[in-house]
UniProtKB/TrEMBL annotation:
It comes from the Bacteria. Gene3D superfamilies: P-loop containing nucleotide triphosphate hydrolases (3.40.50.300). It holds the Pfam family AAA_23. Residues 27-289 form the Rad50/SbcC-type AAA domain. GO terms for biological process: double-strand break repair. GO terms for molecular function: ATP hydrolysis activity. This is AAA family ATPase.
Length: 635
């Protein structure tokens, strides 16, 4: 029946320094206890197991960091293997894996296979390999959606550094609500393996949408209001109109060569009048725009200064309100107008100055009324300011083209005055017009390309909206499909946790007869009777109870992916009383002894229960103060 469950059990742990063993200990299925006084290196052994199984550990103490390698002989679904990792400060060293026990692995060099801690196109990561060895499912087509050994070990290892209010081991590099939820759902078998992938897709889609939406907003902010209405079709139409005018101008240029001198002279006179009219028209428009631009600039400055004054008045009003609420109203001894001494009235509800009745509600209403009025003025002024800014931007965009047209008209008129013949002046004018049209044509083509890019972004944004909606629908369908299992698993875990907590010795009132227990992997929190915080030792007990419940339920539920392996470092952490620690250890052993399927629990304690000391569950000696689990004195 064991092969129906994913599992990994530690058989032997060996730590080497200078090719000499400084720790060599066998472990067995079931309960394993490492005990000793505080400061003797029990946590060091737990960290080395955690690291040897594939975690990234960068916060080392001096003793393990001075060692070279750690070897773990493990049993898992597909057989017995030996894992080896060099001890490095970064905690990201590769893993060597050899099929067979530790003793046989020391006799071969060719059977070891090397796996890096990150996936590559050429080779599995050690996480992928270990998952395969435990028969744990993985995504076949999306490696980025797969969890790693480092991540799932966060639920399998209770350390002393992580705050007792947290469910998972702390992680500064790979921690967010999505990952925490994925870890919980994966190990408890709450998803069908696609939910995490869909969440990852949704995150990527929303990230891409935000990027494109930001680009479009930035573009629209730079464009004037009129330019935002442009489309590729409108620009195409304008380009065709310009091309048509260029063609007509070229034809007109050819026709001039065949006209009589009188016709050309008459045309020149008429054209000169038209050009003068154009010059006057463009000059008037430019002057009008410059006047309007100057007016709007002044209005913007005035509005900005007015808004600043309103902000100051609001700030002063709020300070006045705070002062009035703190100190009360002021009493004047002399009239502020004529300096005559004022008769004092010892009544709190009468104004000391004007002798009118005072009402506290009236004062508050006055402050509120003035504040509302100022806020209204501010909102209206901000609207006017933004309108004027937009209008000024729109006006300024018209200036370059008008200046170009005015320059061309002046150049044409100059050519008329300086030309030796009517034909020459006519051709010169048409040539100038053609030059302007060609420049405009090039500008329109550039704008067409620019707006085509905008349309492409808009199209991509719409596609992302559709794809996001599809992924959200698929995610909702998957969640609905697994809803019943979620309720069953959570209900059973919560019940088992409360049953363990009930057996505490009465150190915490809420533990005596708890009515409800809840947990959330995304929020990384637990609640008992609606509370998320108790004393530090009670939080440790609650956290240990939840993890023990997870181990217990994993041996009963075939759909769990939790590898039936649990590390608990220092049962009595955070000042727990010896009697309370002894009681919890006895509870753990009694519950685990009743389990029908294989499991492995390794825990450390400095206060081992008298019932357990010297029994079959103890591994190694009791490390007394002054000794250390790593025998570095052998080197």
């Amino acid at each position: 029946m064991i092969n129906n469950y994913s599992f990994i059990f530690l058989n032997r742990l060996v730590v080497l320094k200078n090719n000499t063993s400084v720790y060599d200990q066998f472990f067995y299925q079931g309960i394993n206890i490492i005990r000793g006084d505080n400061g003797t290196g029990k946590s060091t052994i737990m960290d080395l197991i955690y690291y040897g199984l594939g975690a990234e550990l960068s916060e080392w103490t001096a003793e393990p960091l001075s060692c070279d390698k750690v070897f773990l002989e493990v049993s898992c679904n597909t057989g017995i293997y030996t894992l080896s990792r060099e001890i490095e400060q970064t905690g990201k060293s590769p893993m060597l894996i050899c099929e067979g026990d530790y003793l046989s692995s020391t006799k071969t060099e060719t059977q070891w296979l090397k796996y890096i801690n990150r996936r590559s196109d050429e080779r599995h990561s050690y996480s992928q390999q270990l998952f395969d060895m435990m028969n744990l499912p993985q995504h076949k087509n999306n490696d980025s959606a797969n969890l790693t050994m480092h991540q799932i070990l966060r639920l399998m290892y209770l350390d002393q550094i992580t705050a007792p209010t947290k469910i998972l081991r702390y992680d500064t590099n790979y921690d967010n609500a999505n990952i925490r939820q994925a870890i919980g759902e994966y190990l408890l078998g709450l998803d069908d393996l696609d939910i995490h992938e869909l969440r990852q897709q949704l995150i990527e889609l929303e990230r891409d949408f935000a990027k494109i939406d930001g680009e479009l907003k930035a573009i629209y902010k730079l464009l004037s209001k009129g330019q935002q209405d442009f489309t590729a079709d409108k620009l195409h139409a304008e380009i065709l109109a310009v091309e048509s005018e260029i063609y007509q101008s070229l034809q007109k240029k050819e026709e001039i060569r065949f006209k009589t001198k009188k016709e050309l002279d008459d045309m020149q006179k008429e054209q000169a009048k038209l050009i003068l009219m154009e010059i006057n028209k463009y000059t008037e428009k430019l002057e009008k725009i410059h006047v309007q631009s100057s007016f709007l600039s002044n209005e913007i400055i005035d509005s900005t200064l007015f808004l600043q004054s309103i902000d100051y008045r609001i700030k002063s009003l709020l300070e006045s309100k705070t002062t009035n609420e703190s100190l009360g109203s002021l009493n004047f001894k002399y009239c502020p107008a004529c300096l005559t001494k004022i008769e004092t009235i010892q009544q709190d509800n009468i104004c000391g100055l004007c002798k009118s009745p005072k009402h506290e509600d009236s004062t508050k209403k006055s402050y509120l009324h003035m504040l509302n009025e100022l806020n209204f003025q501010k909102r209206e002024s901000e609207k006017i300011l933004q309108f004027n800014k937009n209008l000024l931007d729109e006006i300024k965009t018209k200036i370059p083209e008008l200046e170009s047209l005015l320059s061309i008209s002046k150049l044409n008129y100059k050519d008329y005055l300086q030309s030796n013949s009517a034909m020459e002046s006519q051709i010169s004018e048409i040539s100038n017009r053609i030059g302007f049209l060609e420049s405009k044509h090039q500008n329109l083509k550039e704008r067409l390309e620019f707006f085509a890019n905008i349309e492409a972004l808009v199209k991509e944004k719409q596609q992302l909206i559709v794809k996001t909606s599809e992924v959200k629908d698929a995610l909702a369908a998957k969640k609905e499909k697994t809803k019943n299992r979620l309720l069953d698993v959570c209900s059973q875990l919560e019940t088992t946790t409360m049953n363990i907590v009930k057996m505490d010795l009465g150190f915490e009132k809420d533990f005596e007869n708890p009515e409800e227990f809840e947990f959330s992997f995304p929020r990384d929190k637990m609640w008992l009777n609606g509370k998320s915080k108790f004393s530090a030792s009670s939080m440790v007990l609650l956290k240990n109870s939840f993890r023990l419940a997870t181990l217990v339920e994993s041996t009963k539920d075939i759909n769990y992916r939790f590898p039936r392996f649990l590390l608990i470092d220092n049962i009595e952490d955070k000042g727990m009383m010896p009697s309370r620690s002894h009681n919890f250890q006895n509870i753990m052993v009694e519950m685990c002894e009743e389990l029908e399927n294989p499991y492995q629990l390794i825990y450390t304690t400095s206060m081992i229960s008298p019932k357990l000391e010297g029994g079959n569950y103890c591994r190694g000696i009791f490390y007394k103060k002054g000794t250390h689990t790593l025998e570095l004195n052998k080197i």
